[in-house]
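Q: Convert this sequence to structure tokens.
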Amino acid sequence: MKLKSFALTLLTISIATVAGTKAAEAASFTVVADGLDNPRNIGFDSNNNLYVTESGKGGDGKDGRCIPSPSSQYIPLCAGSTGSLLKITPDGKKETVLSNLTSLALTPSGEQAAGPADIKFDNKGNAYFLTGLAGDPGKRDTVLKSPSLGQLYKLDLNTKKLTSLADFGAYELKNNPDGTDIISNPYALAIKGDTGYVVDGGGNSIYSVGLDGSGIKNVRAIPEKLISPDKLEFPTLPEGTTDPTGGAPLPPGYTTGENGLPVSNQSVPTGVVVAPDGSLTVSEYTYFPYPEGEARIFSIDPNTLQARVLADGFTQLTGVAYDPDGNLYALQHINNSEWKEIQQGGVITGDISGSVLKIAPDGKITTIWDGKGLEAASGITYGPDGKLYISNRARLAGTGQVISIDPRAASVPEPTSVLTTLTAAAFGGASMLKRKRSKELAKAETV
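A:
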């Protein structure tokens, strides 16, 4: 899901300086489950049971089922049967629904796994299960021997049978919707009526899929964002580092940045949810080197899959969710560019704190939670009890969590001065904000 990003379509905008707010962080924080391996997205059934997908920790590589990671300095990604689906009842009872599912992760750390990625339920109570891939789909069935990756399934929770509805890996390999490098990583799922919507963070695209078994209905690439490499901040490579590709040409859509590191303008869509007006809301992570303040939230037409920008100025978003009042919650994975705080292979060298931002229907942005246990999170869902459920430490093996945060406990707004761009693209007809955060607010409020 890395080395990607997005570009603005033309908008008519007006600039205004307004007062933003940061909540005194009073929202409750509860650990619902602990000791997980790369937990991803969360879904609730009609009985308020919580389901969480664990992407697992990959394999040890001894069987040769490994490929070089396209986004992590070519560290081996190795397959293993370590993914699972966990169920947590309203009274806290935990049950493993599916186990020994295929997982692909960096070896030997087990970090940044792809495998079980999301689970959602339709209005009839049917379950749908998504798996990621995070690599070259041309090697999925051969080298990795993992054909179950990169697909959307209908899941029978009684028989545990999985029925494939769409194979995004095969589609990427054949069609390459964004026209750049061939990588697929289905990351999140939303359901509207009899259609599923899947964002592919590797293929930089959004798909619509018929849940009746009719297959992929439509696909569209998320537009790129053009940022000159000389405006990006890059890590300094360790002395003696050599090109692991052996001087191979860069993939389509890439240029060379500082220290010879590859740079693209591709998008990494990471979250999708149905908005109150029936449109889709999609979050993005951005491409390497993950520039701060450059991630966006988009509105997607569910029929044409055309995108327009709702809000800008975020950092490494990994999920979006709405509450019944039309408030949008955006999850920042890490508040700073990830390479500054955590090294590939899961070595934490800095502060991996993330944050949850509330965007009201009138466009006002409030920080609901910042750090204080929220770390490298990925996946956010509004629960039936009015709390936000989040996969925490979601890129790490053995220390992942599911947490809940009660946004109703957030209060006592603290005014700050921010530069805001108001667009005509509003939630439910109100104006949305675009804000470029300042250096001084880089840690406290990254919008």
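The longest helix spans residues 168-175.
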